[in-house]
């Protein structure tokens, strides 16, 4: 067995499959692109779905990768077990309708046992096989020569996640020896494939050969596929003879740095879990933030916030009570630099995000501690000694306050927690998270329809708006047909097309299909890309159309020109954002339509009005400069040498288009653009807003759209001028300012009148005193402007000592308010204003509370106010 570093192993795996003519695919972003079924990329095959379901045809049907992945369904187990991780790497080789079982098995065995490769002892390898998969069993036994004592039939060896491709799988296990055996002889799980520590699963080979259909039937796939997965962390632990994944070169440098920061030792058993949690979570945080995810209160942002807060809490257990996680980022970067340079490239951003979040959490911890103390005081006042699980869960969920920390605080006061209730709330949260993670099937049913389209269809729309061409394929109701009738909908492929297919944020073209007499044959409603990028036209047919006939295609030129102006303006905006806000700004999504453009970007702070004005000014300046927009077709490597910006999450082939606006903006882009910036005409930002933690959105218009918007605003201003009777728009601000002053003066007078009215009523109300068992009470309705005036009357009551208890009610439309105030005499009788308000507020369908001497409530039933006030004497009698 070879002794290899993690980097050596990763490269060896990729080299092995490169020799087998596989395309080595770069690891995709952890943030799924255009896939609502996944919160994170959670496996190697997750990035291959488009190939497996046939929606995209790969250039090479053999692919291998080392894919970074995140799984967060069992965060609580991280650090507790030997191999649970949030971030992990999956080594995999994939065949998209090329080789199948024989080659996949032979190559897996060769890589594991070959002297040139890992050189594992074959006698230590065990294989599990699906019982009905006799072919796989025979390959292992007869072709590879594995002894039958090392072949185990396992019913669970069938990979099936619901509708879509599925099939049997075969798993390879490594025998770590009797010293790792954690189960007694004869235990039902004590075998290769069971839940034990001795036999470690290192590779799973999945044979996708069936379609699991909606009616729960299984039919053979048109194209059989191979999907394999080998956890890098697991195989490294074997090669480095490590008891768990954490004692490898992937984690130990992080653990060692944490030892330096904490002064604690990893060898101490009580510290191990905390060291492991920190080492695991900081890797996930670094990679996820580098890929554009940011902490927030929902979705993947919530996962990151939770990982960071768990890390901080485990840091506290190691006596680290100040922000420290940023000091681990250089270590993560160094460990992974050979294959993942992006962590080092984005280090400044990662550290900025983590430090900001750590500081915020330390403040939150302080708030949470205060909240715990409040709850404890409330329990003590009520004479109770058990905190509800709902309260403990709110501390955990809202304040990020871990249950064990709450336990520490309440134990000092001899208070326990309702753990059953807490667990129930936690289970509800997990269910909500599960539902949020997956709202549809995660892989589409494979269809061979589009894969049968081998004829090339060329996009010529970069420099042509119309063309005469031949119809080569008609798709109707998921089948190829020879002709289509008027009124039918269909998808059409032509030998060439000027119609742009929607991608990269740019919408697809619309237009018409004509015959040689220029009669309209069909309307093109949208265009999408086929498996090889072919423009596939969604049409509504007007006249009968047939295969192999010649037609005249013409795009909606006016609409295309508007789209192009918005698209080029998006490139200018992207660069301007970096110049005004900073280089940390990156595109997080875009939509380029004919009416407007939408641009999402990463930024931590609110964009100021001055910054927006500066951005708008700079974009319009570039438009006025009439800069030529040039496109260059080149290789991806040369494009990067030119300084072209690759957009986050986009996949690029070997050959790319670079769109350049002088040296100001260079981006890899397949979209259509204007020839010079002056064609854009005008750029106007309509709105800027936050759409999530660290992500903001700008909506803007250009040319006709910008003019129309400005014209609409001028019409509004003109109408307002007429209403305010000003002669010129220049006078409008002065007139509005004058009206604001008049309104302020009128409100002041109105307040004064209300106050005098309330004072006048108070003189009568304060005389209406009732004596109940020696406690004097005033309980009356009053006409006042708002709660503020009620409080002022309560202050006057208190100063003049009109009674022992005061209750005032106020109706305000559909709402009603109550206040209650008690003097020292009433409180000496152990009466509390909060208890009184809680007693009478149900009459007004409301609720409230407060201090012992003052409380208030609001409700939605004004007609219940009289009953509420009449109930005050009853309460006094019961409590006096």
UniProtKB/TrEMBL annotation:
Q: Which UniProt keywords apply?
A: Aminoacyl-tRNA synthetase, ATP-binding, Coiled coil, Cytoplasm, Ligase, Metal-binding, Nucleotide-binding, Protein biosynthesis, RNA-binding, tRNA-binding, Zinc
Q: Where is the composition biased (Basic and acidic residues)?
A: 851-864
Q: Which SUPFAM superfamilies match?
A: Class II aaRS and biotin synthetases (SSF55681), Putative anticodon-binding domain of alanyl-tRNA synthetase (AlaRS) (SSF101353), ThrRS/AlaRS common domain (SSF55186), Translation proteins (SSF50447)
Query: Which one of the record's GO molecular function terms can you name?
Result: tRNA binding
EC primary class = ligase
List ligand-binding residues for Zn(2+).
567, 571, 669, 673
Domain spans labelled Alanyl-transfer RNA synthetases family profile: 4-712
Region Disordered: what ranges? Answer: 851-880
Gene Ontology BP, a term: alanyl-tRNA aminoacylation
Which residues are in coiled coils? 736-763
| InterPro entries xrefs | aa-tRNA-synth_II/BPL/LPL, Ala-tRNA-lgiase_IIc, Ala-tRNA-ligase_IIc_anticod-bd, Ala-tRNA-synth_IIc_core, Ala-tRNA-synth_IIc_N, Ala-tRNA_ligase, Ala_tRNA_ligase_euk/bac, DHHA1_dom
Per UniProt, what is one Pfam family of this protein?
A: tRNA-synt_2c
Reactions accelerated catalytically = tRNA(Ala) + L-alanine + ATP = L-alanyl-tRNA(Ala) + AMP + diphosphate
Domain-level remarks: Consists of three domains; the N-terminal catalytic domain, the editing domain and the C-terminal C-Ala domain. The editing domain removes incorrectly charged amino acids, while the C-Ala domain, along with tRNA(Ala), serves as a bridge to cooperatively bring together the editing and aminoacylation centers thus stimulating deacylation of misacylated tRNAs.
Family under the similarity heading: Belongs to the class-II aminoacyl-tRNA synthetase family.
Q: What is this protein called?
A: Alanine--tRNA ligase
Q: Which organism is it from?
A: Alkalibacterium gilvum
Q: What is the lineage of its organism?
A: Bacteria, Bacillati, Bacillota, Bacilli, Lactobacillales
Gene that this polypeptide is encoded by: alaS
